[in-house]
Write a structure and sequence with these properties.
The chain is an all-alpha fold. The protein is built from 19 helices and two strands. Helices cover 72% and strands 1% of the residues.
């Protein structure tokens, strides 16, 4: 094979790793029975692909090839250990694996990644550990990305993930979808996981790009699978919320990758199919007697989607929905979003007063969007010194290049 052809195959392997590695990993966990063994088998399979695909060609089904290769390499490794160590339990485990097929088990969901999410969200784990472990092992986010989502330090998150994996192993937590009776109790953690994955894809925590379509697309895919299993109002509401946000993705950046704010976006570039699907899901979710937080957020997204422009948006209704959301699920971020909506309804001074109250409480002092929102209010009010101070604070907390360029432009304009 020529050097160029070999390079092309390596690029294909890299692409398959980005798109398929977590699916392969999830299936290997089912087949091999543990995180560490599956992780080792995953890396062995991709090493084998780098060696064999340039010589033999790319297989017709790369994912199946990787699963099969990883599984058999794990079996070979266990056979070697059994031979050297003469351990009966290892030998028995090897024979059980050798008899295993790669076909899906007869369970309610035929998707191993969704099965893995429910395992990682087992009630024996602490809620934050459930989310952190799932983001790391199911979706492949880095520890730093997860730490950003939690607004906490990376070393703390790393320890949390290690403890969660140890708990799963020591407690013998099964790798399976819970029964229909237990599913509703496990739903909240799973929805939170999916939404955090989507948020990282919709607005990346760091890097050169504003979005990571692979993550937002994966979150939507997982939500579709979940609603097929359990069409509860909040699952429908989350799927609606993500579709309505994702519908704006193409309009959120310029051709050069710069950030475009909602009011300045070309709404003809919004994805009307996703909006239509999201709006229909919102109606289904809100038909429940007691709609939950995701359904309320989806209703807010629907108001943005149906407005022809920023000035024509029903900000009064959006403020009311944020007030309802604050009663359901109080948080400083909800308060911040309400403050921005109040500024759109009543003017920037009203919004600034609310944001200053939030920051005075000590909430969101390290949250870049709070300082960026305050800077925008001050800018609109002509308070240039205060605006510059808040823009600089937001810049110091921002690790994403499009956001940094936007904030730098705002500063330069002042």
């Amino acid at each position: 094979m020529s050097e160029n052809a070999a390079k092309n195959v390596r690029e294909i392997v890299d692409g398959v790793y980005r798109s398929e590695s977590r699916r392969v990993f999830a299936t290997l966990i089912r087949l091999l029975g543990g995180f560490d063994l599956a992780e080792e088998a995953l890396h062995d399979a991709f090493r084998a692909a780098l060696e064999q695909w340039p010589r033999d060609g790319v297989p017709a089904n790369p994912r199946a090839w990787l699963v099969s290769t990883g599984r058999f390499k794990a079996i070979d490794g266990m056979r070697r250990r059994a031979r050297f160590d003469a351990l009966d339990d290892v030998a028995e485990q090897v024979e059980n694996l050798a008899d295993e097929t790669t076909a899906s088990h007869a369970e309610d969901i035929e998707d191993d990644r969704l099965r893995l999410i429910f395992t990682c969200c087992h009630p024996a784990l602490q809620p934050d550990a459930q989310v952190a472990l799932t983001l790391r092992e199911v979706c492949g986010l880095t520890t730093e990305e997860i730490a950003h989502a939690f607004l906490t330090g990376a070393p703390t998150l790393a320890q949390r993930i290690v403890r969660a994996k140890t708990k799963i192993r020591d407690a013998g937590i099964p790798y399976q979808v819970p029964s229909q009776e237990d599913l509703p109790k496990r739903l909240d953690s799973v929805l939170r996981v999916i939404y955090l994955v989507f948020n990282e894809g919709y607005s990346a925590s760091s890097g050169a790009s504003l979005t990571r379509h692979d993550l937002s697309g994966e979150a939507i895919r997982l939500a579709r699978l979940l609603t097929g299993l359990l069409p509860e109002p909040e699952a429908l509401g989350l799927l609606a919320l993500m579709l309505l946000h994702e519908s704006r993705r193409e309009a959120r950046t310029s051709p050069s990758g710069d950030l475009i704010l909602l009011d300045e976006q070309d709404r003809s570039r919004w994805n009307r199919d996703q909006i239509a699907e999201g709006m229909a899901l919102v109606e289904r979710a809100l038909s429940s007697r007691r709609p939950g937080p995701y359904s309320i957020q989806a209703a807010i997204g629907a108001l943005h989607a149906e407005a022809p422009g920023g000035a024509a948006t029903d900000w009064a209704q959006i403020v009311g929905l944020y007030e309802l959301l604050a009663q359901m699920e109080p948080s400083p971020v909800v308060d911040l979003n309400r403050a921005v909506a109040v500024a759109m309804r009543d003017g920037p001074q009203a919004g600034l007063s609310l944001i200053d109250t939030i920051l005075a409480r000590g909430d969101l002092s390290d949250y870049r969007l709070a300082h960026a929102a305050r800077a925008d209010m001050c800018r609109r009010l002509g308070k240039k010194a205060d605006a510059r101070e808040s823009y600089r604070r937001a810049l110091a907390l921002t690790r994403q290049e499009p956001e940094r360029r936007f904030l730098e432009r705002r500063l330069a304009e002042l």
